[in-house]
Design a protein that fits this description.
46% of the residues lie in helices and 12% in strands. α4 crosses α7 (175-182). It contains eleven helices and seven strands. The longest helix is centred in the middle third of the chain and has 23 residues, at 128-150. The model is unreliable at 275-289 (pLDDT under 50).
């Protein structure tokens, strides 16, 4: 069984984690979402509680099948998919290939159609055990400006940093699994597939990005391109954020999604989605093994 975390009630919204793979790194967004919907999340293949090894050969399609398993386990016929960063690529593939199960789509800070790894990051993915610490050491410099813009009070910034440290201790990262996911992003074939996936999406879609000058992980202009490629998609920019808006400004992130659900007529349709109500507390189902 898959460990599934859910809270709240209303329309099911599945929060798909980013390249870290573990849902704990996105808990601020999950908690904020649960105030207005039935928030559901899980960890990606290979992570503790996932109940499944990484299927490297199947790539994003294998991760889409994992999402099928999550919805089947909860007996949910259709859901709104909310993918953050790498998780947005999983959500996009799912929405393109399973329209009947996709009530809506949210792409947050998702690598754009033309995104590819920088040369040094390609090297990191080949030797994650050696270069993983280098990659982690770069992160404060890449997100420091964004955090300072999003959280103006120095004391609150320190508390935010301490919460990230606690999350890291509680849910350690696997550099090898992160590298395996990163290798699914690059290459011209995958770029072409992202464009064709976007053209195949017909569900109501919201594209969420940060300010272009603050996202030093995934170019915000690339994320915004999905608003042009997906028919009828809406776009919103979370001010004073870059790549981490869902955790540095989770209330603003959640309100943007709540507005999207209302505008798309989804927030009042929970009764039309089978088993759309959940208890107001966490329910975790663990791998029996």
């Amino acid at each position: 069984m898959i460990e599934i975390i859910e809270r709240g009630h209303g329309v099911p919204v599945v929060l798909i984690p980013g390249i870290q793979g573990r849902w704990q790194y996105f808990q601020p967004a999950f908690d904020a979402l649960s105030a207005s919907c039935r928030a559901i999340t899980f960890s990606l293949d290979g992570e503790p509680g996932s109940g499944r090894r990484v299927e490297r050969a199947s790539g994003l399609d294998g991760l889409a099948r994992r999402l099928d398993a999550v919805l089947d386990q909860l007996e949910v016929d259709r859901a709104v998919l909310c993918g953050v960063s790498f998780g947005g690529l999983v959500a996009l593939r799912y929405a393109a290939t399973r329209p009947a199960r996709t009530a809506g789509l949210v792409l947050a800070s998702t690598p754009g159609p033309g995104f590819h790894l920088r040369r040094r990051h390609e090297i990191y993915t080949r030797l994650p055990w050696l270069f993983g610490p280098v990659f982690l050491a770069e992160m404060p410099g890449r997100v420091g400006q964004e955090i300072a813009a999003a959280i103006e009070d120095p004391g609150e910034r320190r508390r935010f940093a301490w919460r990230q440290v606690r999350t890291f201790v509680r849910a350690p990262l696997s550099m090898s699994r992160m590298a395996a996911r990163a290798r699914l992003i690059g290459g011209p074939t995958e770029c072409d597939r992202r464009r064709s996936d976007a053209a195949a999406v017909h569900a109501p879609t919201l594209v969420v990005s940060g300010e272009p000058g603050l996202d030093h992980v995934v170019p915000a202009t690339g994320t915004s391109e999905y608003a042009r490629l997906i028919d009828g998609a809406r776009a919103v920019c979370i001010e004073r954020s870059g790549h981490l808006g869902c955790i540095t400004r989770p209330d603003v992130f959640a309100e943007a999604i709540a507005d999207f659900l209302r505008a798309s007529g989804l927030s009042g349709r929970a009764g039309a989605l089978r088993n759309a109500r959940a208890p107001a507390i966490d329910r975790s189902e663990h791998d029996a093994a």
